[in-house]
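User: These chains co-purify. Model them together.
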Amino acid sequence: MGTMVHTHDNKSMLSQGILIFIYLAILTALEFFVAITFNSVVLLVVVALVKAALVIYYYMHVYKLNLESEVDDASYDFKAGTNRLGLWLFLISDAFVFAGLMVVRINLLGLSRPELNQTLGLAVTTVLLVSSFFMNRGETLMRNGDRQGFLKNIALTFILGLGFLLGVVLVEWRLAIHEGITPSGSTAGAAFFMMTGMHAFHVFTGLILLAIVWINGRRGLYDVKSYPVEAAAVYWHFVDVVWIFFYPALYLIGTAVH
Amino acid sequence: MRNISPVWKGLLLLVIAGAIGYGIGLGLDALISGALNTSGPVGAAFAILFAVTAFFFGIYGYRGITRGLVYQVVGTLLGALLITGIRALMGLDNIFGVYLFSEPAWVVGALVGVVSFLFGVGVVHDWVQWSRGIDTPEHHADEPGWEKYFGVSLDHKVIGIQYTITALVLIAIGGTFAMIFRTELAASQLQFLTTELRLFNQTGPQIYNTLMSLHGIIMIISILLGISGIMNYAVPFLVGAQDMAFPRLNAFAYWVSVPASVLMLLSLVLGGFDTGWTGYPPLSARAPVGMQMFFLGVFTAGWSSILGSLNVIATVVRLRAKGMSAMRLPILVWASVATSIIALTATQLIGLSFQLVMFQRLFGMPFFDAARGGNPVLFQHLFWFYSHPAVYVFVLPGLGVISELLPVFVRKPLFGYRWVAMSSLGIALVGFTVWAHHMFTSGMNEYLRVPFMYSTLLVAVPTGVKFFSWVATMWGGKIETPTPMLFVLGAIIVFLMGGLTGPPNAAIALDLHLHDTYWVVGHFHDTIFGGFVFPFFAAIYYWFPKATGRRMNEFWGKVHFWMMTPSFFVLTLGMMLIGLRGMRRRIVDYDPALGFDFAQLIMTIGGYLIALSVLIFIINLFHSIKHGEKAEGNLWNSRSPEWQVPSPMPVHNYDVPFEVVGEPYDYGLKDSKYVEFSPNGQKHIEFTTEPEVQPHRH
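Assistant: Joint model of the two components:
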C-alpha cells in the first residue's frame, strides 16, 4: 500500500529534485555575486530565506507532516507519521542552538566578518549543496524500488559530506589559523570556530546516520519500512539548511576585518 | 546475609565502599601532590562515587542503575586519563591539576562518563540494535515488584514514578543544603562556616556560596524531574494512550538525568562554584573546576527536559482517544503541552550559554571577555531567554494540576474551560518575550527596559484568568478537604502571594531597588511553592492510590500540610520583609546593626519545620506503599478515565479503550458523561512480545 501511493509520481519526483537543485545553484551563485559586488545585507538574507524555503519544502517534504493517514493506527505508516513529527520537533529544538549562535555572531561582530578564503568557502558550500541533491535522489530512488540507485546515491552523499567535513575541519581551519584567525585570538575567530564547529559536529552525526542507512540498505532493509531513509534525508537536509544561513553569515555579509 | 533487608545491605556497602573510595582518592592525591589532604576534594570525590554505586549494588545487584554508575565512574576515569595522557604527550607543563586531573581532563572525563552511564544502564540498547538492522520487541516485560524502578523500563507509569522519586531525592539533597546555610544565617557573624574552615579546598564562606548555588540548581533540576514525573505518569492515560509516543526516548530522557545529578554532586567536592545557579561570567570564567561540572550537569539535565517535552507533544498530537478534540482535553494536558513548547525550544539557549563559557575556559575563546571584545551582557540574554520562561515550565503543570483537581473536590464544573486552556498557552507564549526583566540593572541598553516591563506585566493577565476560574469554580461548591484538596487550596493562596509580589519587580523604578535583595528570594519561593511544590504534593496524594492501590495516611497528610503552610509563610514573608529593608541575597553574613537577627532566627525555625514536614511526607509515602488503607476503586469520585478502571492500572492502561462523549469537568450535572468504554474507542498500538522480524542477514 505504502509503495503504491508513490509510484505514479516516480519520474516527476526525480526531475523535481533536479529542478530544485538548479534553482539552489543559481541562488548560491547569485548570493556570491551580490557579496562581491554591492554587498546588500537585505538581499543576502532574502536569498538565504528563499534557499532554505526551497530545501525545507521540496527536499525535506515538510508538507508530509500534514498527511492525514486513513490507515490503521497500528500500521507502519501511522508510526512513521508519529516518528516524522518527533523528528521535526527535534529539528525545531536544534534550530534554536543555531539561532543562538547566530545571535552571538550578530551581537559580537555586527556587520564585520572574519577574513576567510572565499574560494574555499564557495567550494565547501557547493559540495554540501550537491550532496543534498544526491541525498534527495537516493531517497526518491529507494521509494521507487531502485535499491542499487539508492545505494549509489547515498554513497555519493556520504563521500561529499565527508569532503565537506574534512574541507572545513582540516583545510579551512588550518588556513584560518595560518592567517591568524584563532579560537582564542579574537571574537571573530571565536564565533567562526564555534559556528563551524557546531555545524561540523552535526555533519558528523549526519554521516553516521548515512552510514547506518547505507549498510542496512545493502542488507535489504527498507523495502516496506522505509522511514529511516526519509529520517536520514531530512536530517541531512536540515544540516544543509543551517549552512545556508551560516555561509553568508561567516563569508559574505559585511566587511572583512583582520 | 540472606535475612538482611536490601536497604540495610545497601547502606552497609555504602559505608564500606565510601571508606575504600576515600582511601583510594586520598592515596592518589598524596601520590601526585605529595601532601596528605584529609579534607581535600579528591578523596571526597572518590568516596561519593564509590558509595553511591555500592549502595545501589547492595539493594539491586550489578544491573540497571548500578551498572550505569559503574560505567560512569570507569568512563569518567578513562576519559580523564586519556586527556591526561594526550597532554603529557604534547609536553604540556601541568598535566595534573589541583583536583588530581586537569580541567580539560575532568570535562572530557565527565562527558565520557555520562555517555558510558547510558550504555551501562542499557537505555540505548534497542537503538544500537535497530541501527544494526535488528528489530526488538515493541515493549519489554517489566520485572514484578519494586525492582523494575531500578532498571530501564519503557512503561510511562514506571518512568513517571522514577522521575518522581528522583525528584524527591533531589529535593531532600537540595533542602539539606538550604538548611545548612540557613542555619549559618540564623544569626549575624560567621558561626560554623568560618574562614578557618577547610573542606574540599574551600573556606567556610566558599562552602556557603557553593551550597547556595547548588541549592538553586539542584532544586531546579528536581522541579524539572518533578513536572516530568507528573506529565509522564498522567498525560498518556488522560488522553487515552497506551504509552508515550516514543517509549525508548522517554526512558532515555529519564536516565540521562541520573548522571546529570551525579555531576552536580561532583561539583560540590571539585572546588565548588560561587556564582549562584546563574553562572554569570566573568566570575564563572574563573571559578574552580566545580563550575564545569555544574555546566555539564545542567547541559545533560537539559537534554532530559528537551526530549521529555518532545515526547509529550508528540503523544498529545498523535495518540488521543477517539472524540478527544482540543476543547475536550483535560486542563493538565493543555498545561503540559504549553510547558513542553517552552522546554523543547528555549532549553537549548541555556545549554548554549553555558557551553560558550565552558569553551571560553577551555580554549580561551573570548565570547564574554570584555577585555578582548567579548560581551558579558550577551551571556545574560542567552541565559535568561531560557531561564525566565523556565519558571513557567516549572509552574504551568502545577497550575494544571490545580485546575484538574479543583472540580473533583468542589463537585462543580470548571469555570471557563476554554479560557483556562488558552491561558496556559498564553503564559507560555508571552513568557518568551520577558527575559530581559532580569537585566534592568545589568547595563544593557536602557531603551530595552520599558518594552520588557510591559511584556512582563502582561503575564499577569492570563495568570489572572486562572485565578478567576479557580475562585468561580469554588464559588457555591460543596468543598471537600481531603489532603490533596488542602494542598490545592494551599497552592492557590501561596501562588497568589507569589503572583502579587511579581509585578513590583517588573516595574523598572522599583526593581532597581529590589534587585538582588531577599525580597526577590521571597517572591521566587512563593511562586515556586505555589506553582510547583504544593501542586506536586497534591498530585502525589491524589494519584498515589492509582499507582499503588492504597491511599496515603490522611492524618499524617494533614499534619504535613498544617505544619508546612504556616512555616512557609513565616519563611517567605520574613524574606520579603528583610529584603525590603536591605538584606542582600547570596551573602554569607550581614551586619548585626541592620537588626535582622531575630527575623533570621524565626525564618530558620520556619525552614526547619518545612524540612520536618517534608520528612513526615516521605515517611508517610514509603510507609503507605505497603501499609496504607486499601483503595482500589474510584476513591475521589472523579470523572477522569483513569479512575474508571481498577488501581493499580493494567500495564497498557486500558484493557478496553474509551471514547470521549462529553465535557471533562461537568461535575454535578445530571446524566453527563465524559468517557465511554468501548472496543473501538482508541488509537490503537499493537504490543508484541516477540520480535516482529528476525535479524536481517543476507
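Strands of chain B lie at 96-97, 100-101, 550-551, 629-630, 658-660, 675-677.
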